[in-house]
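Moderator note: this is an archived Q&A kept for reference. The question asked for a predicted structure of one protein chain; the sequence and the answer are reproduced below.
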Amino acid sequence: MRIFPSSALLVFLATVPTPAQDDLKATILAKERQELDCLRNGNHAEFASLIADEAVFVDSHGPAGKAEVVENTAEFRLQDFAMEDIRFVPLSSKSGVLIYRVTETGTTHGKPFSATAHISAIWVERDGRWLCVFSQESAVPKP
């Protein structure tokens, strides 16, 4: 039997998710899916309610605040989406970063589209409500 030095054991234990971190990941993943489902179902009021007032979303057009994001998604409808390669980094007991790849199809301004992107989103719990405070989308170039 090999005995690990105490520092190596601590590093190993620090990388093993705790049940609380698993619950946090599940909660934040569910909120991110809820946000995407709102875009699929056309429920823009619920979509807006999931975004913090001071939120910043970044894509190839640059940063945008909540009002701009909500306005820009009014003519955006997802038909289908798949989340893959999901990763999670807890920031506190009430916040975390979700990182994943999304493949999606839908319509924007009446025109069909299909895309794949890498997404990172920071969610925080405030007064019992989960809110997205930051999101960045990086398009995956088509082959």
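Archived answer notes: The helical segments are 6-15, 19-41, 44-49, 66-72.
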